[in-house]
Amino acid sequence: MLTLLGFCVIDFLWLSLALCFLLAFCVHRLSRYLPTGCEHSKLYILFQDLIRYGKTKGPLKRDHWLRVFDIPKRWFWHFYAISVGWNGFLIVLSLNMIVWGQKFPSWLTDILGFLTTGGPVAVRQVPQVSAVLVQVLLWVHSLRRLLECHLVSVFSDGVIHIVQYIFGLAYYILLGLTVLCSDSLIIEGGSPAFPLLSQLRWYYVAGAVLFSWASLLQHRSLVLLARLRTGGSGTVETLAHRVPSGGWFELVSCPHYLAELLIYVSLGIVSGSHALTWWLVVLYVLFNQALAAQLCHEFYTSKFQSYPQHRKAFLPYLL
């Protein structure tokens, strides 16, 4: 049925995730209109516990049993370590296929076949230049974030839910597979269908430029956040939350989340407008980051009375 509608298994997965986070965003925004007392119900607290992490969990009055499922937020680096290792491995396999004509392992082919057709496939996929470029940029992004977790960010005692932690680990594994699934070049053999140089397109450069700019925006935003807790010498002086300022913080509360969205948009540009699967990933990132930014924005506005009123949560002048 999904195939008849133009969707494959991987498309359905990302569309489902996007709709889940859109629903969560809408439910959270509408929760302010709940009757008095509903915010103390177990169902409401469980919902908020699952969508919040870090500082945004602070205002939530959770039962002791919910805290059993807390994982340190500083373990975020695990996600990027998994991504660097897994996506690096997939890059090696892709390059081996392009350069040496070596086919993907049968277990990987079976997984890709299930995610794209719902069953095994007889043909073998040879990655296009666009797919390899997306793989490399995704790996660079993950490596940068891994280094930033260790060398830039200053984590407090914030926590994430164990469900969020497990989801984060699985997310980057699925993301690497998605790059290969969104690759449209299917041929029967182990060599490229046409010379690599003839595959170069102008939008590869456009996507790479946007990727570089968005990565720089995210890095600078994370540096500004870290400086709120460090002194001039770089040593940690406090773990308290302060009002961020400077850069794109003058426009939105979470420019690092906006940059994350732009990074995925840039990868979509590199993959080409035909790659429906990747644009479903972008849709998921949009709703996911919008929800996280809205929660952070509400935290700032409730904690700091002098918080700039003109500052939006996620999208300048809009949201």
Automatic annotation (TrEMBL):
GO BP annotations, alphabetical order: dolichol-linked oligosaccharide biosynthetic process; polyprenol catabolic process
- In this chain the 3-oxo-5-alpha-steroid 4-dehydrogenase C-terminal domain maps to 203-319
**Gene Ontology terms: cellular component:** endoplasmic reticulum membrane
Looking at its record, which EC class is this enzyme?
A: oxidoreductase
Q: Please give the chief subcellular localization of this protein.
A: endoplasmic reticulum
Task: Note the Pfam families from the entry.
Answer: Steroid_dh (PF02544)
Keyword hit for Endoplasmic reticulum: yes
UniProt GO MF annotations: 3-oxo-5-alpha-steroid 4-dehydrogenase (NADP+) activity; polyprenal reductase activity; polyprenol reductase activity
What keywords are assigned to this protein? Endoplasmic reticulum, Lipid metabolism, Membrane, NADP, Oxidoreductase, Transmembrane, Transmembrane helix
Subcellular compartments: Endoplasmic reticulum membrane
Reactions catalysed, as given in the entry? a di-trans,poly-cis-dolichal + NADP(+) = a di-trans,poly-cis-polyprenal + NADPH + H(+); androst-4-ene-3,17-dione + NADPH + H(+) = 5alpha-androstan-3,17-dione + NADP(+); a 3-oxo-5alpha-steroid + NADP(+) = a 3-oxo-Delta(4)-steroid + NADPH + H(+); 17beta-hydroxy-5alpha-androstan-3-one + NADP(+) = testosterone + NADPH + H(+)
The membrane topology of this protein is:
Multi-pass membrane protein
Tell me its family. Belongs to the steroid 5-alpha reductase family. Polyprenal reductase subfamily.
Name of the protein described by the UniProt record: Polyprenal reductase
